[in-house]
Amino acid sequence: MKIRHSLLIFVCLFFAVGLAGGLSPVAAQPEVQAARIGETPERTRFVLELSEDLAYRVFTLPDPFRVVVDLPEVTWRVPAERQPKPKGLITGLRFGLFAPGTSRVVLDVAKPTHLQKVFIIPPREGKPYRLVVDIMEVSRTEYFAAAGQAPTAASSGEPLSAALGVTLPRPRLKPPQKERADTRPIVVIDPGHGGVDPGAIGVSGAYEKNIALDYGRALKAALDASGRYRAVLTRDRDVFLKLRERVAFAQNAKGDLFISLHANIHRSGKIRGASVYTLSETASDKEAAALAAAENAADVLAGVNLGEQTGDVRDILIDLAQRETMNLSKKFANDLVAEVGKDVKLLRNTHRFAGFAVLKSPTVPSVLFEIGYMSNRQEERLLRSRAHRDKVVVSVTRAIDRFFGRQSSASRS
């Protein structure tokens, strides 16, 4: 008891001396405490209540039209029940980490818009700092006539980038390279969505991005524990990655297999079951085509300027050079269906085909694995359970063993 008492006194003295000497506790991450949308005949106003005065960058994007608000990395403290409802020109809102150090709010707008005013209101009358974004409707002609001159704003404080109008820098993805002496296959695990792009939202309000990351981390841990593979994650936190960055990651890692993890939703709450997709410019069915279109819109949802993208994702053509890769992708998909089907329910016609941008690596066999349907109450409950996750991970690991075991046998014969 005396020891504990002495220790408590020491800790108190340590902090007292430290504070007196100018030491300060680690600063908490800035917060978004509330968000509101208002409307007048002249404008639509979007307001963020902030815990402190923050740098910001606001800009618009066309086709589809969006307003993007970038902030330093912040914590979103707005409860789900207090999220602002669409109003005026604003038809939807998403928030999340766009890149390490940069949080992003994306506002979907119904029509072409320009920024009328962007400003910070300092604390007063019991209110914290408020970032105010006023947007006004313009014609499509007016919008594009101002291209390159569209209003962009930053606070008078520390800017987010060196110059306005310059895209915020993103970290370079540096996957581990295969060492010369290490002949183990590299498996690239791609948890879908992330950050400002939540993916599908389940019946309980669960986000697809969180389920995908949970399963991705568990699969990596299992593959690492086996000692037979080198497993890498395209993302290991709640951050957004462009589709082309995911493809480039697998290429740069010299991956031997790419598995993109997702969870689906359907307008019918009765549909359930896992499914596997491989690349084809001709979709196997209308649902597969619709799913591919939705997944390929991930960059749009996150406020990416599609005009800046090169054709390495959007315009890759399936040619003879990709044929062997596509054949290997289909073989692994068949292995995955066979092994997963032993443990969990499968969707009918389990192996499907569509033009998923994230599967368009010309050299890395790639599949998109839909673990189940979040729109089915029973299956969403399973997807969120550790027991079900571990069962799926074991079956995926068996499929990977089967796939590389066949390749090893073929190389010896």
Could you walk me through the main structural features you see in this protein, from its secondary elements to its overall organization?
The structure is a single chain. Mean pLDDT is 82; it is low at 1-26, 152-156, 161-172 and 310-321. Helices cover 30% and strands 26% of the residues. A hairpin with a 7-residue loop joins strand 8 and strand 9. With 413 residues, it is of the alpha/beta class. It is built from 10 helices and 16 strands. It has 2 domains: 31-154, Immunoglobulin-like; 186-304 and 312-412, Aminopeptidase. The chain has helices at 2-20, 140-145, 208-226, 243-252, 286-296, 298-301, 311-314, 323-340, 377-383, 386-412, and strands at 31-39, 44-50, 57-61, 66-72, 75-76, 90-99, 102-109, 113-121, 129-137, 153-154, 186-191, 230-233, 257-264, 274-279, 346-354, 366-373. The chain is elongated, with a radius of gyration of 24 Å. Helix 8 (323-340) packs across helix 10.
